[in-house]
Design a protein that fits this description.
By secondary structure, this protein is of the alpha+beta class. The chain is built from 25 helices and eleven strands. The strands form three sheets. Strands 3-5-6-7-8-11 form a six-stranded antiparallel β-barrel. It has a two-stranded antiparallel ribbon with strand order 1-2. The longest helix is centred in the first third of the chain and has 34 residues. The protein is elongated, with a radius of gyration of 39 Å.
């Protein structure tokens, strides 16, 4: 008897020493060793008895089920907590050990599997465990999945910039960067792309004006004053961005959009230019007008007034003779109007005062810039209104009845469009880049620009705005991820006659599944299913090619693939798409992610997007959430999927034809 006790104690000591640091009160996951697991299972049973939370009770029950599954005979697995209680009914030691589940969760149980013991009773561990390899593959697939989508988006942006004149005009620097670099290497030039987009967004007002000056949509055929409107806008932008108003107005009549035109609006612009030069102070730095007070004093007597107008006619005779108003030459109109000299002088004083208002705004803006500050949007709007007012003052010229030449609505519409243009500059000044883009989209819509072009400008323009305002590389990546729609190695199989690779696909699937074993309560044996899939396996691919009958036929750029899946890490990949690599995963086994299957996959030309269909068995692992792995029995699934093609490495590639087919 004493000898028997001694042996028992030795055995107990030996078993305890098998788990140094754990003891009989181990708090980790069950291992399938009774002495190790007894306290763990007891603590979970106690927790289930005392919990008041249905979600918590459901999770605990699933973990208890997983723990007891390590002790059931080979080939037997409890599919649910209720199933476990039934299986323990003939064990007099364990019968009634498990408390009942609340009725509210009795039919909504989760199945969670711990890392089970292998055949010889030792758990999986090390660098070749399902967790290590599965997580490594899933992380790689998740990263490559996002990269392929990002590259596809940038390539599409590049294609649109080269194809659509509106987008190219708004984002010229972006176009240069994308044309100089390969989208597949975007991580290298992304900083330069950000700088280009920032510059383009800041220059939106000028870029838009330059583009509209080309009349890309033939709007001048419907609007007589289209080109003068654009010229007014472009010159307003010059003033807003630092050019002196006097210098801009002095050269306005030489603007290519005005110089050779004979319409009334252009005539007003030319008059503004000529009178601006006449009121410029020659004794001060270039671009300064004589003050309104000095002009009024100089023209206070009739003789001085007549002399001024005479000299004005003499200096500008050639240009004035090219301008016709109601079939009368402007030179003759002014020359024959000497009887109204006093009205002419009043008008000159009105014009001088409007120019002086412009000068005040100029001084205010220049003062801000000297202090390294930018003018506000309100200041720009007020400044622009002063510019428009100075042009409008010209229509009060007493020797011409402008109402018989230009209808009121036409004036109104011209200045309304110019004001819309100017609001773009105002929004840019206040860093409201999104509003500036919205204003451009609104103008293009009013002008009747094709809806397809407007959609492109809106989509890619908003992306450019997001990149431009991003302050960190992480924010830029987030902007790209947010904008991208459905790292290039997929191109190998698209351009090969034969390619054999170790391959992954990641995307969304739908299909019909039939479980092979016992299913949990409430689950149909056969049902429809959708979700995220990431099968990994062997791919035999051949590029689609033209059968021209010649010795060297051409590849089309698309591919066909027979794909044999081995595992499916869709649940883990979906988890990694929304969690970084530091987030921990629950334990799972190779059995949980095993997913043999066969598929046909078609890869689209010049795109990582592929469509496929086939049959697959498994995987058991369905989702990972809150550090809980949800599994179901393996099922045969007939599925269709839309996925991103992600080759991991190539075994064999042949890019030439050995013989004529």
């Amino acid at each position: 008897m004493k000898k028997g006790r001694f042996i028992s104690v030795c055995m107990l000591i030996t078993v305890v020493n098998l788990f140094p640091g754990q003891g009989v009160f181990a708090q980790g996951d069950p291992k399938g060793f009774p002495l190790y697991d007894v306290q763990i299972i007891k603590s979970k049973i106690d927790s289930l008895k005392t919990t008041r939370s249905a979600d918590t009770a459901q999770d605990i029950a699933a973990r208890i089920t997983a723990a007891f599954n390590l002790y059931l005979p080979a080939g037997e697995t409890a599919k649910s907590y209720a199933d476990l209680k039934a299986r323990l009914a003939d064990n007099k030691y364990l019968d009634n050990v498990l408390p009942d589940l609340p009725k509210a969760i009795a039919f909504a149980e989760k199945t969670v599997k711990y890392n089970p013991a292998s055949v010889n009773g030792s758990p999986e561990a090390g660098m070749f465990s399902a967790n290590a390899i599965g997580d490594m593959l899933a992380t790689f697939i998740a990263d490559r999945f996002k990269q392929e989508i990002e590259i596809a988006y940038l390539k599409k942006l590049k294609d649109w910039l080269n194809a659509d004149p509106t987008l190219a005009a708004l984002l010229p620097n972006t176009l240069i960067i994308l044309n100089q670099n390969n989208p597949y290497e975007y991580t290298i030039f992304f900083e330069a792309l950000k700088e280009a987009m920032s510059k383009d967004i800041s220059n939106l007002p000028a870029n838009f004006g330059n583009f509209m000056a080309t009349d890309p949509y033939k709007l001048s055929e419907k609007n007589l004053y289209y080109f003068p409107e654009v010229a007014l806008y472009q010159n307003t932008i010059k003033i807003i961005y630092g050019s002196t108003p006097a210098l801009v107005l002095n050269n306005l009549d030489q603007d290519p959009l005005i110089k050779d035109r004979a319409d009334a609006f252009s005539a007003v612009m030319k008059m503004a230019s000529m009178f601006s030069r006449a009121l410029t102070n020659p004794d001060q730095e270039e671009g300064k007008w004589i003050s309104a007070g000095n002009i009024e004093s100089s023209l206070s007597d009739p003789f001085s007034a007549r002399l001024f107008v005479g000299l004005f006619l003499l200096k500008n005779k050639e240009e004035l003779q090219t301008i016709k108003l109601n079939d009368r030459i402007l030179y003759s109109v002014i020359n024959d109007g000497q009887a109204k000299i006093n009205q002419v002088i009043d008008w000159i004083n009105l014009l001088a005062n409007s120019y002086e208002d412009l000068a005040k705004y100029t001084t205010a803006i220049q003062s801000l810039k000297k202090g390294f500050k930018e003018p506000s949007g309100k200041l720009i709007l007020d400044y622009s209104s002063a510019i428009v007012n100075s042009i409008s003052a010209l229509t009060k010229f007493p020797l011409v009845d402008w109402n018989t030449i230009i209808k009121g609505n036409e004036w109104h519409n011209a200045f309304l469009m110019t004001s819309s243009f100017v609001r773009i500059s105002s929004d840019i000044a206040d860093s409201n880049y999104g509003l500036a883009l919205a204003e451009i989209v609104n103008i293009l819509t009013i002008m009747g620009v094709p809806s397809k072009t407007i959609t492109v400008v809106k989509n890619y323009g908003n992306f450019a705005v997001s990149i431009a305002v991003a302050k960190t590389s992480a924010e830029r990546e987030e902007a790209l991820n947010a904008a991208a729609l459905p790292v290039g190695s997929y191109r190998i199989k698209r351009n090969s006659y034969i390619n054999i690779s170790f391959n992954a696909y990641a995307g969304f699937f739908g299909g019909v599944q039939q479980y092979s074993g016992t299913v949990p309560p409430g689950v149909k044996k056969t049902n429809g299913t959708i979700g995220f899939t990431a099968p990994v396996g062997l791919a035999y691919s051949w590029g689609s090619w033209y059968h021209s009958g010649k010795k060297q036929d051409s590849l089309k750029g698309a591919s066909n693939t027979i794909f044999l899946s081995i595992i499916d890490v869709g649940a883990i990949t979906a988890f990694r798409l929304t969690h970084d690599s530091t987030a921990t995963l629950p334990e799972f086994t190779w059995t949980n992610i095993l997913a043999p299957g066969i598929f046909y996959v078609y890869g689209f030309k010049n795109s990582p997007v592929s469509l496929g269909g086939g049959i697959q068995y498994g995987p058991q692992l369905r989702s990972v959430e809150n550090n809980v792995a949800t599994t179901l029995p393996s099922a045969f699934t007939i599925r269709l999927f839309c996925v991103i093609d992600i080759p991991i490495f190539n075994f064999y590639t042949r890019t030439d034809l050995k013989s004529n087919p």
